[in-house]
Amino acid sequence: MNGADALITTLADNGVTACFANPGTSEMQFVSALDREPRMRSILCLFEGVATGAADGYGRIAGKPACTLLHLGPGYANGAANLHNARRAFTPIVNVVGDHATYHRDFDAPLNSDIAALAAPNSLWVKSAECADSVGPLAAEAITAAYGTPGGNACLILPADAAWNAASVHGGVAEIPAPAAPDAETVAAVAHAVKAAKAPVLLLGSGACREDGIAAAGRLAALGVRVLTDTFTARQARGEGRFRPDKLPYFGEQALKELDGADLMVLVATERPVAFFAYPDRPSVLVPEHCGLETLCGREVDAAAALNALADALEAPAAGPAEPYAPPPAPAGKLDAWAIGASIARHMPADTVISDDAVTAGLPIFTQTRAARAHDWLSLTGGAIGQGIPLAIGAAVARPDAKVLALTGDGAGMYTVQGLWTIAREQLDVVVVVFANHVYRILGIELSRTGAGAAGPAASKLLDIGDPRIDWVAVSQGMGVPAQRVDTAEAFDEAFAQAMAAKGPRLIEAAL
Amino acid sequence: MNGADALITTLADNGVTACFANPGTSEMQFVSALDREPRMRSILCLFEGVATGAADGYGRIAGKPACTLLHLGPGYANGAANLHNARRAFTPIVNVVGDHATYHRDFDAPLNSDIAALAAPNSLWVKSAECADSVGPLAAEAITAAYGTPGGNACLILPADAAWNAASVHGGVAEIPAPAAPDAETVAAVAHAVKAAKAPVLLLGSGACREDGIAAAGRLAALGVRVLTDTFTARQARGEGRFRPDKLPYFGEQALKELDGADLMVLVATERPVAFFAYPDRPSVLVPEHCGLETLCGREVDAAAALNALADALEAPAAGPAEPYAPPPAPAGKLDAWAIGASIARHMPADTVISDDAVTAGLPIFTQTRAARAHDWLSLTGGAIGQGIPLAIGAAVARPDAKVLALTGDGAGMYTVQGLWTIAREQLDVVVVVFANHVYRILGIELSRTGAGAAGPAASKLLDIGDPRIDWVAVSQGMGVPAQRVDTAEAFDEAFAQAMAAKGPRLIEAAL
């Protein structure tokens, strides 16, 4: 057993059995050790941003960490944007970052850099295994750290010599921290405040949006409490049979309008809402002026338990309202996000996972699918586009029996377009829908909101991605994913129905 | 004038007139200000790694910085791997990274992160403009910092409010530091040591490999001094009419064999050579045991002047040997890197710029083009693959009259494949040659060298990228770059000759 064996055994012993990888020379011992640990499934990604995004998707669905395998500082950096998103989703991930042999670092060879410094901003735990016998125990520590509470990404730096030298120990069983129980006094105080309020609003963060949290929030809705979720949540249980909270709008002024009249906001596993961006003369904090603020629980607490405790204290019914299955009628004519959302709601089977990186198209689809079959919706939690395709990869690996739907803008899709190859390679049951509007549409909206006025020729050139037009069918097929282009609502509906009926990789370019 | 205007005016006043950009909401003021500054050429890249790699290529060829425009921490992180390469190339670059408005940061909105911490490992200067009136002066400071000596990448963080608020000053003319003059005493001492040595070797770093440095090194070669360059240099003047030094081999044992018998190594704008990676039981330092070590000059010194001073002290002739134009004969039969190198040497016009991200194919091409027309060769200085296509973009923008050739492995090419779109968008005169061997070939070699043994099924799966095979013609055409696939030496020779005779974007998939 060498250090790499100790690492992989420790990971597998603790249920970390998926590895999204793009290795290099310094990771060859890890790669070789994979041949000796059949429990670990390794999945090659042609760019590290695909690997880290996939690990995020896996963690959100599996509820346990995957590991990534990354090549020194540059490999980590390539994956850092999707780790930023993962950090904001509180997803457990164990990043294994290969490094030069410990004695080789001081020579500052070309690939040398300060990996720990690069990793620090996105990691809740960073350590380097300086000898083979520390690899296993540190792997166990990394797993514990990744689980949270709440979860996040841990970074284990693995010098080449720590991997290739003989190891005498592995890490054993890692402690998996349990979320804290709700605080009874806080629950009682919040119950009191809710009773006293005329128009209380509950705001749910990611930790409160899984099936149990949504169900518990539904009980409070049955009492007339308004329930909203954060604009972007890691994973939200939605559709048939579930309670449907509203989503806090993205634009601050719309959010404040939505909250107008609320006299109490109760935060559940989240913090006081703020605008995604600042704009001249618009507020940063999205709490109405005379609205009180209470926190039912922080992110470290079992939010479903807290919500149920609050519901019990308020003598709420055992269950709240449940969405029926009521898809919109078949769309016709012009192809737009509303029409596409209707088709999705009509055809997607129960237990579909939706990975949303559709930017401006996201909200119409979200709205249209509110009464679709039961599904999970994964949002872009950190705002770093290029998450849609990678997240879908990880979700599909975590739940091979489910349909996974990646919704991506064309601009966002190009960020991690290499992910299509991994979908083909692994023959994942992923359908990618590209919203090909040939423009960074959100930026056209944001330009004027930031007070920058209308776009002249130079500015327009930085918002337009339509010259040349990207042929998504060619790009997708070139990476092994069968694809088609549709430009009417009817054609999309038919293509999407077919994709849902079949199994395996598929891309639909929605020409908007 | 707002802060964004002050920034762009300061940049343009100092000759920074190319901006490789992928902006977001927080950069909209900068985007808008582009309409008011016609001197600035902005070039949209669909991923930040393309933007930073292009800025590196621009800086290497133009000898002055381009700027990038990046979107907060994740945008910077996406560009960090190619900035790692740029750091190792000592390329002047001014990275402008948009940030939340200063007063908005503390609310920790989803895109918030510690940009300065992310940028620190790759930057020689990081500052944030906390108010509009600091933007211009800090831009001038960033330009001075980027120039060096030696150059590097500077990171100016631009909060949204510093960009949109009114500014009363811009930055004026930045100081451009001149490289230090060679130290006469050191030159005399090194001359003495060279005279005393039986087998002296000169090792040239990036700063000594431009046309003037290579010419000066040639004078010393005329005296019988062995001249080598670092394995990877930022930009090397080569081909017809130039002196041809040898390259220090990549693998340590080959490097030591090459240096066998040398009793003096003189370092010119570089440091003692070390192995690219550590391997069990192989040395890290690539200096033979009884070889003396002298430093003619550090990277802060005008290396050509130092070499000429040394040549004068040794009474070398005014000029060294010059390579004739002597391309290899037309290749025939099996298509491999040697055949491709022959075609490149035969057909590429004078003043071509070659961006090399060809990994295992790079050395054969380098060897075959030693007596080609005069050209510049840009190497992968930092080992972070995915540089080839982006670097070519920047080189083509810096020198629109030259042919630019991007040599890329298929694995490396997929990293920043989005760069093809920018080549098409800007109609750059770039020919991309993809070495499609469907495998991370270097890793197959490295696996056994690290003592990891032969690859079993799981390990092999992480080295092989041939399932599915990437259809580079489809991918390239899908992004707007005309492409063809060739699989014989004759077909490549013909395709390459045609590409050299034509102008504009082109991709050739060399099916190996």
UniProtKB/TrEMBL annotation, chains A, B:
Biological-process GO terms, alphabetical: small molecule metabolic process
GO molecular function: acetolactate synthase activity; flavin adenine dinucleotide binding; magnesium ion binding; thiamine pyrophosphate binding
Domain Thiamine pyrophosphate enzyme TPP-binding: 374-509
Keyword Glycosyltransferase among UniProt keywords: no
Domain of life: Bacteria
InterPro entries found in the cross-reference section: DHS-like_NAD/FAD-binding_dom, THDP-binding, Thiamin_PyroP_enz_TPP-bd_dom, TPP-bd_CS, TPP_enz, TPP_enzyme_TPP-bd
SUPFAM superfamilies found in the cross-reference section: DHS-like NAD/FAD-binding domain (SSF52467), Thiamin diphosphate-binding fold (THDP-binding) (SSF52518)
Keywords: Thiamine pyrophosphate
Domain Thiamine pyrophosphate enzyme N-terminal TPP-binding positions: 1-106
Similarity remark: Belongs to the TPP enzyme family.
Annotated PANTHER family: ACETOLACTATE SYNTHASE LARGE SUBUNIT ILVX-RELATED, THIAMINE PYROPHOSPHATE ENZYMES
Protein name: Acetolactate synthase large subunit
